[in-house]
Amino acid sequence: MIEVTFTLNGSPTTVQVDDTERLLDTLRDRLALPGTKEGCGEGECGSCTVYVDGLPANACLIPTFQVKGRGVETVESLDPARLAPLHESGATQCGACTPGVALTALWILDQPELLKTHSLRELMAGNLCRCTGYNGIIEGIRKGLTEQAAREGRD
Amino acid sequence: MKRFEGLEKLTGRTLFIDDLPLENCLWGATVRSPAARGTIRQVRVPNHLEGSGLVLVDHRDLPGPNVVSLITDDWPILAAETVRHRYEPVMLVAAESRAAARRAAAQIEVVVDPLPAALDFRQTPTAEQIQVGDDNVLKQLKIERGEVDEALAAAPIVVEGEYETGAQEHVYLEPQGMAAWLDGEVVVVHGSLQCPYYVESALTRALDLPAERVRVIQAATGGGFGGKEDFPSIVAIHAALLAIKAQRPIKLIYDRGEDMAATTKRHPAWIRHRTGLSEEGQILAHDIEVVLDGGAYVTLSPVVLSRGMIHAAGPYACDHVRIRGRAMMTNSVPFGAFRGFGAPQTLFAIERHMDVIAKQIGVDPVKLRRLNLLTDGQATATGQVIDDGTDRQQVLSRALDLSRFTYKRSQHTAFNAEHAYLRRGIGLACFFHGAGFTGSGERAMKSLLHVAGLADGRVEVLSASTEIGQGTTTIFTQIAADQLRLDPEQILIAQPDTWRVPDNGPTVASRTTMVVGRLIERACDNLRERVGLDAAATGTELQAALVAWHEEHPDEELLGSARYQQPPGIEWDDETYRGDAYSAYGWATYVAEVEVDLRTYTARVIDFVAVQEIGKVLNETLARGQIQGGVVQGIGWALLEECRWQEGGMANHQLTNYIIPTSDDVPSIRVAFLENPYPHGGQGAKGIGELPLDGPAPAIFNAVAAATGVDPRVLPLVPERLMELIEQ
Amino acid sequence: MAIHQPSTLSEACALLATHNRGSDRDLAPSPLVPIAGGTDLYTHWPQRPDEHAKSYLDLSGIEELRAVRWRNDSLTLGALVTYWRLIQDRTCWSALPMLVQAARQVGAVQIQTRGTWAGNIANASPAADGVPVMMAYDAVVELVSSEGREEIPLADFYQGYKQMRMRPDQLIRSIRIPRRSFLFQRFEKVGSRNAQAITKVGVAIARSGAGWRVVANSVAPTVCRCPTIEALLDDKVTVRGPDDLATALSQDIAPIDDIRSTARYRRRVLARLLYFALRESCSAFE
Is residue C29 over pLDDT 90? Predict the structure, then answer.
């Protein structure tokens, strides 16, 4: 067992883990944060997306020892109010891929300048969804971006 | 109304079975067959595992018969003397951690003396491959109407064609998983499933327990698509067996690799058409043969075959029809329920065949379909007279308009003449999908549903229909609220729990909104009557009446109930396969536009239009989502998703190598609905869940044919296959 | 079994010297496995219990390895530079665009933010997407150990399937990529879908004052340059169609059938990708 200290959802956290344990298992089994889902365990589906130092990453591919001293945010840290456009557009059906989708979606909303170089569909390609056909997800992000831009225009 | 549990899902607060804490639990794992077929000589448990506190279960631990109860009693819970497919479960282990259980299972060796395996369902099995009857045929069916041989002989044109479709893996994002524990004398199973009562009946039989000693509760379920219709019974029994032996709670959660390797998939199919036509293209006779790969055990293959055959002649009028079908036993994983249930396979064949006919006789594919589409008063293959008032020509026209079909075709001609290596094409498919159970299924089921009037004036829907992502909770809330004139907040939807909810049938066959939704309406009416109100009562009056009733009847339950009643005029003969196969059909035309890259032989869908008539649309966002999700699953089946078989096992059982579409692989799916309310469906709805799987594959294949001039007939059309066609 | 988390490169080299050097390595209880982004190492982790018991050298705390240095004549990537870091670097878009194109096609964002260029080299997969573009740009790998540093052209780095000219006590410290003016450059990746796909066949082509570079992946035991094709281009041999390239290609590549594709497909598609790409820039292509 090793001890790892990092910032989790804004709070300093210290946890004892097996030497090579995955961040995904640490979050789910030791820190009681089951919002991060395991869909494949091979970095394909993105259901286990978390932010590490502000960037989306697959928690199934991260050894917990590597987040030592870093900032990790999970779906539990998201502001539900910001997810309303995704709710309205039908971005979630079964909910298994959804936490990962929500994290990637809000990351895009946080930096709309990404869309100068990337399409939404390219940015979302790391989150496999088997229910929605992606329309609801893409529309929800687009709606969020529009609402956000309108708010910023007013301010 | 927005999805009821949408925000909970978006914020990660929805707890699936693997997310739920289970105190003092052990973790289960499954030891599986390494061979496609053989005799089990030995199960070698290493010495260090014996007496290490590990819990081991094999077939001898079963209190009841060693069968998963479905249609035929052939599917073992744990293989005893022989195995019939790779990854067949042989032994179960439970240990203190998930990793320890997995490690132990990997160390236990099943030694199998191999026997000749039947691996190709298209080939007649050799004598030593025979394992079922004298021909490995699991089920045989025939639909016959009119004088087919005479009509074919008299037809001026006969067009033949053979079509093939491959297996498809469900890839629900949440893998299979169950928890089981003992609550005194009662075995409780909680997990990811579509059909609580299927699991209950499988458990009572396998454990030899009366229903009152078995309780099945659905947990939040991360997708099903049919994959959690049949298979959860086996996971549930396994978890329960371990819990009984260990006398401790058990969690049995599959990882993705195990789920893909060991669970059921869509049936591969081979379909042959012989079609007699007039010079103008009117269909005079159909002679169709449908062969399905059933896999190692019967599971639901007979019903899949039946639905596939009923849809095999497409939405077209024809008086002389013969459809022969059989499901073959092979030594691969059992094929089972998957969204569409046989219809996507046969509709792929007929709709690709229509374009083959059009090309062969020199008729425009749109015109050919217009000429043959069913009009009211004409009959389907089973002799069912269609008389629902839907304008099927209008469905087709709308799809052509939205996709700018004719304009695109001429534009593509110019584009293709100029571009060095890109080729574009557009294709369509007209189809239908029978909603609800086939034939007398609903009548036999006699679904029962309750709504409870609560003491605080709220109303709770007690139903075994499950939310698996398709929106059951939202739609049920909406239907009950509308029917009772209440705010949606006043409606509760009970968690499906066999101790609390009646059996209103499985969550399958696109029947939930249409059949069960109607039961909710009637149960709501019944509840109102029970408190002495008539249909004109307001929500406020109803709530006051509920509160008053409970004051007068303390500690009593107030239930409104409804039992399924068959719509009038429905006749079905299970012996002759004649009559009204479904009480209602959804009608659709889908159009796909593709771009083929001749450098890489890759076909990509660049536009997709899905037009359908599904009765009344109850919730636009949810309905659209169902269609879009189904279309994308259909695009995957058509172009990307290929199970690579190695000695009967799926070799590519990883998401790295079994390829489903990402957001960047599909265009925005454009959806339009035509509405023709169905009087016997919940709020006028017909089923829509499966319909969208039927149309994409043939539309895409027809578009690829238009783009490249080749004649693709084998699905999936992966680039390696398209290369061979183009290079021929 | 242990996890070592050095914060300097010299600490890391010292640890490798102790655990991974020469004949001592066989005596050492557990040689250290270096880990950078982890995106290759940790796939299917629960199914690989034997690897849980190994000892790891975590490079992620060595800040000096995160540097991206642009000079007039070169770009130097520290061993911890991720794909995402370069995707965000607008200089790279104009100076060495194939790096960005390849980076965008590695997995998806969640992989691009963790996976490193050096890790792509050290994982030595024939399907690596970063390696062909770096090789086409004549990248040089800088290796370090407690005994000193060494530079090896990436084109000479692989000796066979998963075989590298790198000792177990060495680490990749950086990758140096010369900046040149290019007359032509093109990266083509063919995966089984548009994103999140392992390459079935791919090619990076660059033409500069240094000559033609054609580097293919997933068609041989290692990512490989195609010298016969390069010579054909240098000699301006007339090419009338993809088939004219096939003979030359067969000298350069040795594709196989595997779970992702077939040798036949890889051969044909590589010839066609090359033909249609080069037709845009070579007068010898008709």
Answer: no
pLDDT for position C24: 52
Mutating which of C111, C187, C245, C265 best tests the B interface, going by the most B Cβ atoms within 10 A? C265
Amino acid making up residue B8: E
Question: Per the CB < 8 Å rule, is C190 touching B598?
Answer: no
Spatial CA neighbour of B174 closest among B215, B225, B128: B225
Q: Does A113 touch chain C (CB under 8 A)?
A: no
Neighbours of chain C (3+ CB pairs under 8 A): A, B
CATH architecture of B25-115+176-253: Alpha-Beta Complex (3.90)
Domain covering A80-152 in this structure, CATH number: 1.10.150.120
As a CATH number, domain A2-77 is 3.10.20.30
Q: What are the boundaries of each domain within chain B?
A: 25-115+176-253, 269-438+576-727, 447-563
Q: List own/partner pairs for A1-8 with CB under 8 A and 24 or more apart.
A: A2/A65, A2/C3, A4/A64, A4/A65, A4/A67, A4/A68, A5/A68, A5/A69, A6/A67, A6/A68, A6/A69, A6/A70, A6/A71, A6/A72, A7/A70, A7/A71, A7/A72, A8/A72, A8/A73, A8/A74
For residue C195, which residues of chain A lie inside 8 Å, CB to CB?
122, 125-126
| Banded model confidence at residue B438, pLDDT cuts 50, 70, 90 | very high
Which pLDDT does position A155 carry in this prediction? 67
How many Å lie between the alpha carbon of B659 and the closest alpha carbon of chain A?
10
Q: What is the pLDDT of residues A4-57, one digit of tens each?
A: 999 999 999 999 999 999 999 999 999 999 999 999 999 999 999 999 999 999
Of C84, C81, C37, C35, which is closest to residue C174 (Cα–Cα)? C81
Interface contact C146, partner A, CB < 8 A: no
Which two tokens mark B620?
Answer: 């636009």
Asked whether the domain spanning B447-563 has the same topology as the one spanning B269-438+576-727, the reply is yes
Residue B51 has pLDDT above 90, yes or no: no
All residues at 6 or more sequence positions from C31 whose CB lies less than 8 Å from its CB, including other chains? C19, C20, C25, C54, C55, C168
Cα C14 versus chain centre, distance: 26
Cβ within 8 Å, pair B11-A75: yes
Mutate to test the interface with A, among B5, B8, B11 (most CBs of A within 10 A): B11
Cβ-Cβ contacts under 8 Å, C259 against chain B: 644, 651-652, 657
Supply the pLDDT for residue B315.
98
Mean pLDDT taken over chain B: 97
Contact A41, B255 (CB under 8 A): yes
Per-residue confidence band for B208, with pLDDT thresholds at 50, 70 and 90: very high
> Which pLDDT band holds residue A151 (cuts at 50, 70, 90)?
very high
A41:C47 CB<8 A: yes
Whole-number Å distance between alpha carbons of C189 and C101? 9
Chain B residues within 8 A of C192 when measuring between CB atoms: 640, 659, 718-719
pLDDT for C281 equals 82
The whole model's pTM is what? 0.98
Put simply, the answer to whether A125 touches C108 (Cβ < 8 Å) is: yes
What is the CATH number assigned to the segment(s) B269-438+576-727?
3.30.365.10
The yes-or-no verdict on residue B178 having pLDDT over 80 is yes
What's the confidence (pLDDT) of residue C22? 66
Q: Which fold has domain B447-563?
A: Aldehyde Oxidoreductase; domain 4 (3.30.365)
Please, are residues B672 and B604 in contact by the beta-carbon 8 Å criterion? no
Q: Where are the domains of chain A?
A: 2-77, 80-152
Residues from chain C contacting residue A127 (CB–CB below 8 Å)? 108
How does pLDDT run across A79-133, given as a tens digit for each residue? 999 999 999 999 999 999 999 999 999 999 999 999 999 999 999 999 999 999 9
Nearest to B12 among A75, A84, A120 (CB): A75
